[in-house]
Amino acid sequence: MKQVKDLREYLEILDGLNELQEIDLEVDWNLEIGAIIRRAYDLRAPAPLFNKIKDTEDGFRVLGGSAGLSTKPEIKFGRIAASLGFAPSTDINEIVVAITDAIEKDGIPPQVVDSGACQENIMLGDDVDLLCFPTPHIHDGDGGRYINTWGTIIAQTPDKSWTNWSINRIMLLDKNRMTGLVPPQQHLGIIHQMWADKGEPTPFALALGAPPAVPFFSGMPIPEKISEQNVYGALYGEGIPVVKCKTVDLHVPADSEIIIEGTISETQRVSEGPMGEFAGYMGAHDTPQPVYNVSAITYRNNPILPVVYAGVPVEDTQTCCGTMYSAAILHELRANDFPVTSCFLLFESAAHLLVVTVPRPCESMEDTHDLTHKAKNIIFKSKPGVDIPKVLLVDDDIDPSDADQVMWAIATRVHPQKDAHYYYHQKTLPLLHYLNVAEKKDMSSTKLILNGLIPGFDRCEISGFEYNVPEDLQKKVLHNWSKYGYK
Ligand SMILES: Cc1cc2nc3c(=O)[nH]c(=O)nc-3n(C[C@H](O)[C@H](O)[C@H](O)COP(=O)(O)O)c2cc1C
Ligand SMILES: [Mn+2]
């Protein structure tokens, strides 16, 4: 596997897989772009690239569905694989393991280069104009036009020891101001607080249309003080090329499409949201959030703005977080000597159900309950685990990324009383739809682990083609499949 140089190389890969749909008909940034992106997810149709957008300079473009699923079974997860530099048909569980291995290696920092395509055009001071980009109004009901749905916010601690990459949504206010979620429990919020404690705003850079793996690493919940950019380097065995910003002391991926630089105010707050969210619902209301004041914008010729339409599964938030949270949790489980084959935050669950597969078989029912308790202590206390409300433990004959198999396992391996374990007063993400007002405010709720592990002596053989059709006959049937008349 090898890092994909930039978004344009990624578009060529998608085109080669027939997973890119260029749209030359003029489209409206107001709801129409969002509607097409959403419909493309629902049909698992190719990623739309909008070449002509109302009220926008010719050449400025929008890309949707960067990490969407495909209708073609052999490359169902092909956009995720290709974004991360793997062959498009790579098994998604293999990708999760490779990323986990990278978390566990020594980090490789970025390589600083003198110039980058992201600075082909430069707007400074009064010339800064955020309104020149085709920023979409995505969902009917959003609080504004969202310029950041798939870009990386780069921020650094005042002592420069930790550079964080993260995706948090950002909405336009006017030509040089934006606002967005700066959640106090997320690393952006933690770094923002460090600057605020010094009485200073937080310098930031927003990289839109960076190399396609960058958004994935920006949705990865690794521990505090570890820089995502160094884990990125560890995966590829070489650091990402970065250039110095024009107005803040930060570095950004050199081959990004658009860079927005400035500071996040420690004093000014305005109304942000609501917006359609990854759980599959429209956010209930707006909240006060910090103002991003923009000091410079730089961009490539004919820049491409990537856009995500968050909502019901399966969309890019779920595929990105699903993949990267899985790797972060697999790391936590391994680091705590938990017997684990693989784990996967199921896309179809809107990234709410984590499936952990355990090497078979456990000796006894007591062993399976011990593992359940151990899993609770490791998972729910970790940074990624805070955001995960439900876990299934299951033997590793189940593919944790396959929603059909997981549904079958829950239905047939979990005793409704003995295997449902409730853990009270656990720290939680407040964006979950079913939480009540008090739970959201306290960020605390009940979490569930379903124990689907079956001790060896209790297990029945599976009834299925690979299991109890004799091997010779399996071969014969596969060989003759088209002769039977099947296409
Ligand atoms: C497309 C997309 C949008 C996201 N939007 C937000 C958001 O608005 N707020 C948030 O707290 N997390 C959001 N996330 C999840 C965070 O990026 C994720 O929790 C990440 O680990 C945060 O970085 P950090 O661990 O460095 O804090 C989003 C993820 C993706 C993929
Ligand atoms: Mn982080």
The count of helical stretches stands at 14
| CATH-level-4 superfamily name of the largest domain | Electron Transport, Fmn-binding Protein, Chain A
Helix content range of the residues, please? Answer: 25-40%
pLDDT averaged over residues? 97
Radius of gyration: 23 Å
User: What general form does the structure show?
Assistant: globular
Sheet having the most strands: 9 strands, antiparallel
Any guess at the CATH architecture of the largest domain? Roll
Contiguous uncertain segments of 5+ residues: none
Approximate strand percentage:
15-25%
Which molecules other than protein and nucleic acid are bound?
flavin mononucleotide, manganese (II) ion
- Give the helix/strand class: alpha+beta
How many structural domains are formed by the residues?
Answer: 2
CATH fold-level topology of the largest domain: Pnp Oxidase, Chain A
Distance from first to last alpha carbon: 34 Å
Gist?
The chain is an alpha+beta fold. The protein is 28% helix and 24% strand. Strands 5, 6, 7, 8, 9, 10, 11, 14 and 15 form a nine-stranded antiparallel beta sheet that branches. Strands 17-18-19-21-20 form a five-stranded mixed beta sheet, sandwiched between helices.
Annotate the secondary structure layout:
Blueprint: H1 7-16, E1 20-23, H2 32-43, E2 47-50, E3 61-64, H3 78-83, H4 92-104, E4 111-112, E5 121-124, E6 146-148, E7 152-156, E8 163-166, E9 170-174, E10 177-180, H5 187-197, E11 202-208, H6 213-218, H7 228-236, E12 241-244, E13 251-253, E14 258-272, E15 287-299, E16 304-307, H8 316-335, E17 342-345, E18 353-358, H9 365-379, H10 383-386, E19 390-395, H11 403-413, E20 420-427, H12 437-442, E21 444-452, H13 465-468, H14 471-480
Parallel strand pairs: 1-2, 3-16, 4-12, 18-19, 19-21
Antiparallel strand pairs: 2-3, 5-15, 6-9, 7-8, 7-11, 9-10, 10-15, 11-14, 12-13, 14-15, 17-18, 20-21
Bound molecules: flavin mononucleotide and manganese (II) ion.
Manganese (II) ion (MN) binds at residues 164, 166, 187, 222, 228.
